[in-house]
Design brief:
Elements (H helix, E strand, L loop, with lengths): L1 H32 L10 E8 L6 E9 L5 E4 L3 E7 L2 E3 L3 E2 L8 E4 L5 E7 L11 E5 L5 E5 L8 E3 L8
Parallel strand pairs: 6-11
Antiparallel strand pairs: 1-2, 2-8, 3-7, 4-5, 4-9, 8-11, 9-10
C-alpha cells in the first residue's frame, strides 16, 4: 500500500505540474497576443512646445497623444528631422541616439509619448523655424508647428514617458 500511495502522490504532483505549466503557457500566449501594433501617424496627435531647460540650453518637447481608442507602441527616436522657415528648409545638424538605447513604449489615451529635443542656448542670430517634419521610428511622416527659432546641433531623444 505504501508504493501505491507514493505512486498516487507522484502522479498527482506530475499532473499538477503539467496543469500549472500549461496554464503558464496559456498566460504567456495571452500576454504576447496583447502586444500593441506599431504607432502610425494616423494614431497620434502631435504637438511641439518649448519647456524650461535644466542646463542653460533650450529644450523642446515633441508630444505624441493617442487618438481616442488607440493604443500603439513605438521604439526609438523620431528620424529625418527637417526644420522649415515657411517653405524653406532650415539647415540644422541633428544628432540622434544610438539604436541600441531604444526601448518599447506604449502610447495610449492616458500615457502620451514624448521625445525631447535639446539645442544650445539661443545666440544673437538664431535661425527662424516655423515647422518640423519627421518620421516615426516605424515610418510614416508627421508635420508639426515649431514654436520658435532653432540653433544647432539639435539633439533628439528616444520616444518614451514624459519626465516631470
Amino acid at each position: 500500500m505504501g508504493i501505491t500511495s507514493k505512486f498516487r502522490r507522484v502522479t498527482t504532483a506530475v499532473a499538477l505540474s503539467t496543469l500549472i505549466g500549461a496554464s503558464a503557457l496559456v498566460s504567456a500566449g495571452a500576454a504576447a497576443a496583447a502586444e500593441y501594433p506599431h504607432c502610425v501617424p494616423g494614431d497620434l496627435n502631435t504637438s511641439v512646445a518649448e519647456i524650461p531647460s535644466p542646463n542653460g540650453g533650450r529644450l523642446f518637447q515633441i508630444e505624441f497623444e493617442a487618438k481616442p481608442g488607440v493604443s500603439c507602441q513605438v521604439e526609438g527616436a523620431p528620424s529625418g528631422l527637417t526644420f522649415f522657415n515657411g517653405n524653406s528648409v532650415v539647415d540644422v545638424p541633428v544628432v540622434v541616439p544610438e539604436p541600441s538605447t531604444a526601448e518599447p513604449y506604449t502610447i495610449d489615451e492616458k500615457h502620451p509619448g514624448v521625445a525631447y529635443v535639446a539645442t544650445p542656448a539661443e545666440s544673437p542670430n538664431p535661425i527662424p523655424a516655423s515647422s518640423i517634419t519627421f518620421d516615426l521610428p516605424t515610418g510614416g511622416g508627421i508635420s508639426a508647428a515649431w514654436p520658435g527659432p532653432i540653433e544647432g546641433p539639435v539633439r533628439v531623444g528616444n520616444i518614451g514617458p514624459q519626465v516631470s
